[in-house]
Amino acid sequence: MKTVHHYTYEILRNNEITTIFGNPGSNELPFLKDFPVDFQYILGLHEGAVVGMADGYAQATGRPAFVNLHSAAGTGNAMGALSNAWNSHTPLVITSGQQTRAMMGVEALLTNLEAAQLPKPLVKWSHEPASAEEVPHAIKRAIDIAGAEAAGPVYVSIPYSDWDVEVDEQNDHLLTKKVVDSQCLSHHYLNIIAGKINQATNVAIVFGTDIDRQYANESAIKFAENLNAPVWVAPSSPRCPFPTTHPHFQGILPASIAGISSIFEQYDLVLVFGAPVFRYHQYEPGEYLAAQTKLIAFSCDIHEAARAAMGTNYICDLEDCLTRLSEIVETKTTNVPLRPTVELAESSQHQFIQPERLFDLINQFSPEHTIYTNESTSTTNILWERLSLTGQGSYYFAAAGGLGFAMPAAVGIQLAQSQRKVVAIIGDGSANYSITALWTAAQYKIPVIFIILKNGTYGALRWFADVLNAKNVPGMDVPDINFSQIAQGYGVNAYSVCQDEEFIYTFQQALNSDKPTLIEVLTANHQ
Q1: Does 70 qualify as catalytic in the annotation?
Q2: Is the pLDDT of residue 233 over 90?
């Protein structure tokens, strides 16, 4: 008879999962023994970085990624990264090693108490099989749930004594089992929606993360052009669903009630595709929308649709919806507003580079189809203004705002997209959260370019302190960190620059390298 160990690897293989991200402890060793030669194991030095790498990998491939964590402690270390994966609809299958069943009752060391409860509410499904015989079914079920819309992380706790148990060969059925997920709007609803769009005088479009995640970018462009309507990106979007160079692009929406309402008060209809309505941050109260403004939203996530404060919300496949609507909506005759031109920033005469200038240089010298991960939160608006984000999968940001995403995510994305360059743009405050990702990049020769904007402070926090009128707050500065030396200690080529010419030379060298590079850039504080 075949074992749980055998069936698990066969199920993973048949679902195109042959990369495992992890940081093993003793509970995980029985799963990892006799590791198959056609699999690869990506080791991270901290579970937050492990989940961050898997998050980036899953987003870049569009398929579930597999993570193996160490009991409760490893799961706890990963929870911050898990919040980002949950909010970005990232399909992750997370397993954790549990103590042997013979000692769970006495709560021996490394027992994960109430294991299925631990990762909630940041998972779609969490489970600890009642017996070893159930493990193969639980693994297959986890893969199917993670990948179904709305996609997201799942969690399975597995006692380490289960792996060698022989199980019924009825499990062979799991090797060919399929789940097909298809949600298309009926012609009835599609005609109702098209009628409302055609009746409206002034229409605005908002595109969100799930456009990019579901590879609906080209359909989004065609729809916006056919309708002849201006396009905004949803607030705090963790991905770029629409080209920032397109003439219809108006920018990214502010993350406040009053700010969004003000922008849309001149429109009688707002169409939202693939984004929550809306993901607010700073509290600036006001009307959600002006009285004359109506809203129709299209989502893959019933929870996002249900918590929306307004509008008519449809659950559907976004690409199918956009494609079919493009064929029946009437082109508007109103002129799309021209977005103000952003002038190139000038070089500084001081021993630092202005953030605006740095982003101009990155944009100028990056090759076509470059992928950016961003965790320089105080300069995010500058990034959206100055970088050319043009293709699918060109931009990734922490969906829950949890720091520690950009560095490991960049490693996972580069692992998945070897034909494209990946540049991670990180603030010096953010960089400390997952700095161990540098070691993985070096060990596996994953040629990410890490650019750290070093200004010695939590810039975004200072901005928010002004918003909240919070004076004399401690812990706002992070001085005296030498990121170049830290990176070199992890085996990464690293440089510190403070002038345009230094950055240009170093960046071009990094672009031509087949190894990871860290560039520490002394920048002016931007608030």
Answers
A1: yes
A2: yes
Flag whether pLDDT at 469 surpasses 80. Answer: no
Query: What's the DSSP call for residue 217?
Result: H
Query: Which residues, including other chains, have CB under 8 Å from residue 302's CB and lie 6 or more apart?
Result: 150, 315
Would you identify the CATH topology of the domain 2-175? Rossmann fold (3.40.50)
Architecture of the domain made up of 355-522: 3-Layer(aba) Sandwich (3.40)
Contacts of 143 (CB under 8 A, 6+ apart): 11, 12, 15, 17, 64, 93
Catalytic residue of the set 5, 22, 46, 47: 47
- Determine which one of 6, 76, 134, 281 is catalytic: 281
Let me know if 281 is a catalytic residue.
Answer: yes
pTM equals 0.95
| Antiparallel, parallel or unpaired: β 40-43 and 92-98 | unpaired
CATH topology of domain 187-326: Rossmann fold (3.40.50)
Break the chain into its structural domains and give their ranges.
2-175, 187-326, 355-522
The pLDDT, as a whole number, for residue 463 is 63
pLDDT in tens, 254-294: 999 999 999 999 999 999 999 999 999 988 999 999 999 99
Q: Active-site residue 28, yes or no?
A: yes
Question: Among this protein's residues, is 26 annotated catalytic?
Answer: yes
